[in-house]
Amino acid sequence: MILLKNATAVNADGMTETDILVNNGVIERLEKNIDAPEAEVVDCEGKLVFPGFIDMHCHLRDPGQTHKEDIATGARAALRGGYTAVCCMPNTVPPVDNPAIVTYICDKARAADAAAVYPIGAITRGQAGKELCEFGKMKAAGAIAVSDDGKPVEKGAVMLNALKYAKTFGIPLISHSEDKTISADGVVNEGENATVAGLKAIPKAAESAAVARDVLLAEEADARIHIAHVSTARSVEIIRGAKAIGVKVTCETCPHYFAATDDEILSYNTNAKINPPLRDESDVAAVIAGIADGTIDVIATDHAPHARDEKNVEFDYAPFGSVGLETAFAVAYTHLVLTDTIKLTDLCRLMSTRPAEILGLDGGIIAVGARADLAVIDPDDEYTVDANSFASKSKNCVFDGWRLKGRVVRVFVGGEEKSF
Amino acid sequence: MKRKDILAIKDLSKAELNEILTEAEYMREHIDRRERLTALTGRNVATLFYENSTRTRNSFELAAKRLGAATTSISVATSSVQKGESLIDTGKTLDALGTDVIIIRHSIAGAPRLLAENVSASVINAGDGLDEHPSQALLDVLTAKRHFGALDGLKVVIVGDIRHSRVARSDVLAFTKLGASVTLCAPYTLLPAAIERMGAKVEPDLDKAITDADIVMPLRVQKERMTQAYFSTVSEYNEYYGITEKRLERTASDSIVMHPAPINRGAEIDGEVADGLKSVIEEQVTNGVAVRMAMLKLLTESRA
């Protein structure tokens, strides 16, 4: 039994000054001045308590690339970021394209005893874009969603059937929307900075055109679709328009798409080499507007760990991606809440409530009877990000050295405090 | 010169450009008098080329030898680079061998910077990806300066595959820093995004672009760009973007034609232009050695 005293509890629909009594893994009481002599007391004066964050999109590299990350280190890094649940993408080696690998991840996650880890199964076998995976069996084994993330489902006909097949089993489909014939061998956003740096460019339409195709296919299939890592102004507009006409589309963006621009690549910093690429100020403004008006449902990390030697090479040779689990909250808090773009309640919706709703997970709310997944935040702690101190095996963070505010101080998963 | 490396025109101030040009003029005089110098005696200069190039490499090696340096050349085909050694490890090996200057060419933009950050040797960029080719831009401005006396107010027109040209990027930066204006002319497929933000004008119609030009610089047209749908046929390219004697009538009376070479006669430049009175292509080659001598001398002077 744990008693969080004098907390400011943040929900998507409002904030309350309250005590929180946790018992048997759930929130038992939620009121001021709770007296529970048998409970271990945690003073939360001046702290914010959020329903534990849920990351719909991370890469834990297990199986196959455990020199970058594994389920245990990833789940520990998640706790550092206030995440009580994370969903790992299937582009491992081999990919998570069958129930046995889903089970493998679930077993390792249980043993890790940190944040909950929910595997995402592949859409197509070998992520090759041809034959569908066993959505039913993978879901039964514990898969929370399906996605070919890392790659788009290239053929429209396969995507259309995947959407219908996912609808059959009631499993969310997360789309990495990208037209590879347009992005080709590009490494950074097309624009002034790519031209100045002389790096090969990815036109924005590589994403936006694919987003348009995929929402139209979802409409055709009358199925839900969740668009991953939205980064362009036009993608936001397309999704806004699709929602307005009733397409069952949800979407996410990532901290680097609203807090950073492609100015980061001018120094050839390979940690800023991310797919989709960091965009320019007009896209950042549109993504922020999409977050503010609810077009963008979720902030996910796209945590993409890579080893030092893999990133410390020529720009084109470096793999795409930045780690993000341990910085996402502070980046969002510093760059969205402290700038008065959104409220704390919105941040709760973006990082906890909507992910839980979209994935059909228990959580995302602080309420009597709800699962006690909680993140305690010190909103006043200001610090410089030091990637070398991360719990993640990899330190390739685009936010390394940034000045941020807001630190996760305690995390409870299913009512148990987890050390990190 | 108070810098360890020369990686890009974008890093250099106007004063630094002029410092190199002044030194290069002096070097050019030595070349014309067929004199050898000793400024780099006892120094080791290595060329590290990850892309094929005979002329740039030869020019740098000749420049180093004219200054009395020992030269080593490492090319991808004959070194441990083929065995998968990383750029940084190769650089550290060159450091350990006592190399003073590494001249690197690489197909990836930013590679010279990565090398420079990881070695104590001075690094000169001899061309990286679509980024820059600073020694080429310096030899171009030197050639222009020797012809016109000053660059202020000159109109430079660069024609062709700007998109895939590091020469064009470095030239835009160098010429505009020194007071000239640069107009880029190409079909839109061969223009990179937002290039005008680097200080150039864009005019896709060649006849308009070259009117009153002082310097016309066609870029080599790569045939493989046809199969990648950047343009249609060489014949159409030549008709709309080829530099011909007829077209040059629109330019200033004392205009010159430069080309970074190798040239494609009948594609981006007609033979009679390449061999004509306005052509300074061979002058550029000689000035290339002078500029590279100047770069080597200025960088090694400040080394311990």
List keywords for this structure.
heterodimer, A: alpha/beta, Urease, subunit C, domain 1, TIM Barrel, 2 domains, 31% helix, 23% strand, globular, B: 304 residues, alpha/beta, four-stranded parallel sheet, 9 strands, 40% helix
Task: Give the termini separation of chain A.
Answer: 20 Å
* Beta content of chain A: 15-25%
Mean pLDDT of chain A: 98
Largest sheet of chain A: 8 strands, mixed
**Major sheet: arrangement of strands of chain B:** 7-6-5-8-9
Number of helices of chain A: 13
CATH architecture field of the largest domain in chain A: Alpha-Beta Barrel
**Topology order of chain B in helix (H) and strand (E) letters:** HEHEHEHEHEHEEHEHHHEHH
Fourth CATH level, the homologous superfamily of the largest domain in chain A: Metal-dependent hydrolases
Overall mean pLDDT of chain B: 95
The shape of chain B, in one word, is globular
Largest interface summary: A-B, 19 and 25 residues
Number of strands of chain A: 18
What does the main sheet of chain B amount to? 5 strands, parallel
- Supply the number of structural domains of chain A: 2
Q: What is the CATH topology of the largest domain in chain A?
A: TIM Barrel
Poorly predicted regions of chain B are: none
Q: Give the CA-CA distance, first to last residue of chain B.
A: 13 Å
DSSP helix count of chain B? 12
